[in-house]
Amino acid sequence: MPKSRIRKKADFTPQPAAKQATTIKLTNRSWVAPVMLTLFAIGLAWIVVFYVTDGSLPIKSLTNWNIVVGFGFIAGGFGVSTQWK
Predict the structure, then answer these.
(1) Cβ(73)–Cβ(43) under 8 Å?
(2) What's the DSSP call for residue 22?
(3) What is the CB-side half-sphere exposure of residue 61 using CA atoms within 13 A?
(4) How far lies 26's CA from each of 29, 31, 74, 85, in Å?
(5) pLDDT given at position 16
(6) Comparing C-alpha atoms, which of 47, 33, 20, 24 is closest to residue 77?
(7) Which of 4, 18, 43, 48 could form a disulfide with 74 if both were Cys (CB 3.0 to 4.6 A apart)?
(8) Residue 60: which of 68, 46, 50 has the closest Cα?
(9) Are 70 and 46 in contact (CB under 8 A)?
(10) CA 17/CA 8 separation, integer angstroms
């Protein structure tokens, strides 16, 4: 039985699309790291001061809500960290 010819297919090459110049705006994010670390430090210090002073500082009227305030600062630091590139 005779062998059939092997047809070579041309490789697919997509047509070049019209290239548009896109400008990438790189914003200055140098503020992110200091703000993030500051919020972490404030939150940690708030909680440590609350425990060391047996609840009389930072704000006595908040009682155990001082822990929530400290963790709020820490959560704010994590929120700011999402802006870091």
Answers:
(1) yes
(2) -
(3) 0
(4) 9, 14, 27, 10
(5) 79
(6) 33
(7) 43
(8) 50
(9) yes
(10) 27
Other beta carbons within 10 Å of 39: 20
Instruction: Quote the CA–CA distance of 39 and 62 in Å, as a whole number.
Output: 20
At 39, which amino acid appears?
Answer: L
Residue (of 47, 43, 50) closest to 75 by Cα position: 43
pLDDT in tens, 15-55: 877 666 666 665 778 899 999 999 999 999 999 999 999 88
> Omega before 34 cis (within 30°)?
no
Report how far residue 18's alpha carbon sits from residue 34's, in angstroms, rounded to the nearest whole number.
43
Please give the mean pLDDT across all residues of the chain: 86
